[in-house]
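Form 12-C: Joint structure prediction
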Amino acid sequence: MRCPACGASLDNPVFCSSCRVLLDETPGIDHFRRLGLAPRFALDVEDLEARLIAHSRVLHPDRFIGRSEAERAKSLRSSAALNDAVVTLRDPWKRADYLLVLLGGPTGAAERRTPPAFVSEMLEAREAVEEAKASGDRAKLGELRASFAARQASLLATIAGQFARLESTPREDRAAFDALAREIRTTLNATTYLATLLRESTES
Amino acid sequence: MADTVVGIDLGTTLSLCAWVGPRGPEVVRDEAGRRFVPSVLSFTADGEVLIGDEARRRAIAEPENTIFSIKRLMGKGLADLEHELRFVPYHVEETDRKLVRVRVRDRAYTPQELSAMILREVRDRAEARLGVEVTRAVITVPAYFDDAQRQATRDAGRLAGLDVLRIINEPTAAAIAYGLDRQHDGLVVVYDFGGGTLDVSILKLRDGVFQVLSTSGDTYLGGDDIDRSIMDVAAREIATRHGVDVRRDPSLLQALRDAAEATKIELSDASSAELGLRSSDGSLDYRRPITREELETLLVPLVERSLRACRQALTDAKLETTQVNDVVLVGGTTRIPYVRRRVKEFFGRDPHVDLDPEEVVALGAAVQAHALSGDASGSAMQEILLLDVTPLSLGIDTMGGAFSKLIMRNSTIPARATDEFTTWVDGQTNVDIHILQGERELSKDNRSLGRFTLRGIPPMPAGIPRIEVTFLIDQNGILKVQALEKRSGREASVEVVPSHGLTNEEVERMLLESVEKAEEDMTARRMIDLRTDGEVVIRATEKSLANVRARLSPAQQAEVRDSIVALRGALAGSDPSAAQAALDRLNLLTMPIAEMQMNAVAEHVLRGKKLSEIGRGGEEK
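Section 2 - Result
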């Protein structure tokens, strides 16, 4: 990207450090591009934090005190959008949810299913939790919780793998792309379900 | 006339101002060499307003016309002030807009106006001393101050004729004063033990950027409590030895308070001091030596309470004492050697003590003001950047009374969050947006910040409108909420009215409750969510059942109907686990039905709505 005013190469899509001017927001710019990142699931959180600080330094409204109303409003909008982007990308679940839709995959509203056999697996798990709770079997409950947590971790690892495949699938191969995208969404739905079950299986 | 920028520490008990002069940051003194303007106002019978030391001297003689601790009232409604009002002799009332006002001598003043008088006094002194105009300032507030309290402080500045460049957190100002931002990255604890309040804040410092990680404290713990402990000892002894009840005599009481404070201060340097009280007619002459050890015995419970706040702040930030790199002391009470010792032991490191703990906040504010004013262009100071966080989560009330959080607590500001909602009733043309603050799962347990109505949505079936709600918090923590119906383009917005606020104590209580009641809340919240989800699935299933009836055996149809009945029963109950199981069973049964239909149809059937419904509002009346 280049600055429309001076033509310098931009390291930040909304600020030109050579002519020190706030640029208009690129319409529809995504969270990744806002931070100068490629839209990929794999992400270095330390690097993300460093980018947040580097961008905040130039965009923060404190840097625009005494400037025009329009510039200050732009800076507020851009800083808020920057923080919003970082909140989304920092968390693996939010990042996966966001990236999937960004790449053209289904939203959680459009695809509510979970992977095959997951619902039956959860119905059994739920029964086991109820049983352990009813009989006051704390050891068993702890075991169940540990197994849910492990399942949760393995689902997140699965999602990382699925994204790696999705990112290398050519977009022209629509069928393969759609199938994979759906698979990611159903896996994400499963993690949401597990998170709730995990919360519900804590001892009272 | 030239002008300059200043930093102002607008305190609960004392206010002061600093600037960056040719010799660097320094506190502004008046001609008599006084640094502080006590945050006290006194209204005389002939309409004069005394501010500062003169006002404080009248506190006992004219309690109802002398106003102190006005900071505690900033940005509050009467309902928030139950605790505070027990301690103030002056008269507080509420306007119809739920703002408090103080009534003195037949005139009512808002806390902003009163604070503005203090700020103006501070400003006048600075102008007289510096010989330049003071029009721009950075004003400090406690880190836990919410939206409304910050807005009120900003308004007070404006009323005092100041362009408020920025409202900054007191602990951040203290860290800036020490130049910690230029030294190294790390974690800084600011232990602020002042006259009336205790605040503990944990800051993260990285590449010159400050982030507040957590705050904790006690809004009713301060140096005044120490004075009171000393006074109690003396009052008891005077009663037994001399048979005089000091508490019945305002002038004796004031004299004893001054004596206690003086003794406390003396004991910071000396190992013993004399506590004395004489009545003007000489009938009472009380004297007793008091040692530092005795004072320390009195201090134990107070200091313990302050360390509990430290522990809480660390827990909130998920940190251990060993991870802390710097400890900064703020507030006059931290001059006491015992307090310093205990803080040092607690954190296992020597606190910073080079700067005067009562000046450090104003000095930091001055440094920041200087940096923001552009006077510091090109210097290292310009590189400081403060990233504050919002102390509590913010969101709106959704269907069934569930609190839907848009911005989570401790989010860096400026912050923006957008979520989409829809309607629950066919033909709904109005939607009430109720803005709340807090950590609990149900709307009713959180704190209402305001509400507004999005009107004129064209009538559409339930679930079709797409209402985008956007929260935007600016760098000063001030919230703006906007609602937009995307199909019709109707929109409405509100800037949150500064009528409510929270004390540090309340924030702590709300957080504590959210932990204590987590399970109870979660159950209630889960039931609300399940009812909403369940209703969507039932509606969809019933529709699709009609479409594919021909291809289902009567037994299959009956099975589906039975599970709908079972789900309805479970949703009416209060066991989320049973409701989830019933919902899962229905979902399992409808899977083949869904597959039976073509993809597009299946999509329609199971489309459901992730969007939470905003139930309230209803038809236009």
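Section 3 - Comments
Chain A touches chain B through 38 residues (CB under 8 Å). Chain A is about 60% helix and 0% strand.
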